[in-house]
Amino acid sequence: MKHLCLSIIGFGTVGQGLAELLVRNQSLLQQRYGLEVTLVSVANSRHGFIYCEEGLHIPTLLELVATGRPLQEQPHVQHWQNALAGLQATSADVLVEATRTNLQDAEPGMSHIRAALARGMHVVTANKGPVALAASELLQLAQQQQVQLRMEATVMAGTPVISTIHEGMAGAQVSEIRGILNGTSNYILSAMATGRDYAEALAEAQAQGYAEADPTADVEGYDALAKTLILAAMVFDYPLKPEQVVRQGITGISKERVQAAMQNGKRIKLIASLRRDMQSGNVEAYVEPVEIPLSDLLARIDGVTNAIKVQSNTLAEVTVIGPGAGRLQTGQGLLADLIATSTFKNF
Ligand SMILES: NC(=O)c1ccc[n+]([C@@H]2O[C@H](COP(=O)([O-])OP(=O)(O)OC[C@H]3O[C@@H](n4cnc5c(N)ncnc54)[C@H](OP(=O)(O)O)[C@@H]3O)[C@@H](O)[C@H]2O)c1
Fold this sequence. Notes:
- This protein has 13 helices and 13 strands.
- About 40% of the residues lie in helices and about 25% in strands.
């Protein structure tokens, strides 16, 4: 049996989703993967970082956060107010980073990931910021330290995109990727296709819990941009800066434009696309609303579902469709990476 000590920094929707899956899947992990995971530390911004070498009791932690009580009410824990200080003073095999995505400077996730890699820990991240802005630097640091940096949950949550391309399609030369990578904007555009205007569709998405009170990151295309940057680095090995991606959101799309496209047998979708010029090797990337014909599968993806099409020299077109967000759906992406990490040679 392999024993893996885990630290989770960021214990909100996604961090708790992973913790719940670790409890639910405990016997499966032992029986199928010979893996025993001990959660030794957890941090959020309100209560700081708690650590227990023997392992934290996950149901108690979930109960504490559900009732708004401090994490340090868990018995027998050491406590640091600052997550980075706690991380540096304790030890674990793997860090799961699940703090909020920040596309300005990627903090606080960037510091957590750098510190964990520098300490020789594997890192699994749901946080898009650090890998969108600095994938090369972080992957290089991981390589120097002979540890893994994995990020499945950052693109389409637990729906396997990065591992499908990276591992499942290993050796294929990918020339183009097109996808619907933001569920909120797709929900709004789908609702507009049924006759609602933008404001009504946004209000509906907010009422359903699909859109935040401030929906800017989703509707202006920043969330899809972050995923596009991650795909550029991971699939094309061609890191792009945010300003190198042409980005346009959906806030300027009127009900009339959506209806006119429909009359022409088309749908408007917020499409993230990356294309490699096979001559120059350059990669161009876009996040923008595009009118696409119904013959294109992407036109028929409705609601919060995500989808991605990958063109390559050997497989022509591969399409992956699935959830792009959610507590357990994103927890699944982290869990798959955690299991993959446990098979790494130096474990
Ligand atoms: N939700 C999804 O469906 C989804 C899907 C794919 C990827 N993601 C990504 O996953 C990450 C987490 O998302 P989420 O929905 O779980 O967000 P969330 O519910 O807002 O949780 C974020 C967590 O990070 C904690 N945090 C913030 N700053 C911190 C710091 N300096 N030190 C320690 N903890 C800190 C917060 O503490 P408090 O609890 O005290 O506020 C909270 O527990 C984000 O980067 C997001 O983009 C989310």
